[in-house]
């Protein structure tokens, strides 16, 4: 029996709760995972899991064993990584789940510089705005704007994600002016569907807070699609500045309600506690902080052109 491999599989199954999912992550058959767990249980002399047709959960002994094993496995993996790095440049695969608003249009230039500096590090990028558990899905890191869904995850905030309402010049010219947040109620709107506040919006101009319920004509889980809706002159849309800035600066979209701000979200890197000592992940996150500071370049340019309020959102 390969004790360490069995212990590694045990930790993964304990965290994911599925033999089949661990097999998929490791690229082996489910029977291999089952065999390694059985070997470990035979070695320690007690069942480590309660199994049913619906789920797999730790036994009482299994929970105690997991508390110790997870730290050992994480430390062992760290030592292997440190030994590899001591021989040269860091290497290995990083699996990253990234928000489309950041990845599309911004991540490629960053990765070009990063991989030139660390050519041994490779990436498996999944681009999606779903909120996931990186442990259960087998990712090293998730880039998202919502809070972690588990206490077993670490959140590292990167930069604020500010939002603006905007429309095409043609739409602006052909419709009544939008001078107050309540004016939005008389316009066709395009709004992102996954904000936790749903249809309730808060606007703040520094002296007044206005709460408005907005019912959109177009609702979508894709801010890029909403941007296309706006460019076609079909609606006033709310977009994160990371997605809207280029079209706004080019004059293809015009911000409205420039004196008002919506509460920002934070783009964060979320990762398992067991990954906190990973050299590859640490390098990746440290360089993200350098390239995407708390005052991201697209916001700085919008503020300089008086297209975004200069009052800080945080």
Molecular structure report:
Residues 1-59 form the HTH lysR-type domain. Pfam families: HTH_1 (PF00126), LysR_substrate (PF03466). It comes from Thauera sinica. Keywords: DNA-binding, Transcription, Transcription regulation. Belongs to the LysR transcriptional regulatory family. With 314 residues, this protein is an alpha/beta fold. It folds into three domains: 3-86, Arc Repressor Mutant, subunit A (Orthogonal Bundle); 92-161 and 265-301, D-Maltodextrin-Binding Protein, domain 2 (3-Layer(aba) Sandwich); 163-263, D-Maltodextrin-Binding Protein, domain 2. The protein has eleven helices and 14 strands. It has a five-stranded mixed beta sheet with strand order 4-3-5-14-6, with helices on one face. It has a five-stranded mixed beta sheet with strand order 11-8-12-7-13. Strand 1 and strand 2 (56-58) form a beta hairpin. It is elongated. The model has no long low-confidence stretch (mean pLDDT 88).
Report Rg.
24 Å
Helix/strand/pairing category: alpha/beta
Oligomer classification: single chain
Biggest sheet, strands in spatial order? 4-3-5-14-6
Question: Given the C-alpha coordinates, what overall shape results?
Answer: elongated
CATH H-tier superfamily of the largest domain: Periplasmic binding protein-like II
- Low-confidence runs: none
CATH domain class of the largest domain = Alpha Beta
Q: How would you sum up the major sheet?
A: 5 strands, mixed
Order of helices and strands: HHHEEHEHEHEEEHEEEEHEHEEHH
Query: Could you give the count of β-strands?
Result: 14
Question: What is the number of domains?
Answer: 3
Ends distance: 54 Å
* Reported CATH architecture of the largest domain: 3-Layer(aba) Sandwich
Mean pLDDT across every amino acid position: 88
- CATH third-tier fold name of the largest domain: D-Maltodextrin-Binding Protein, domain 2
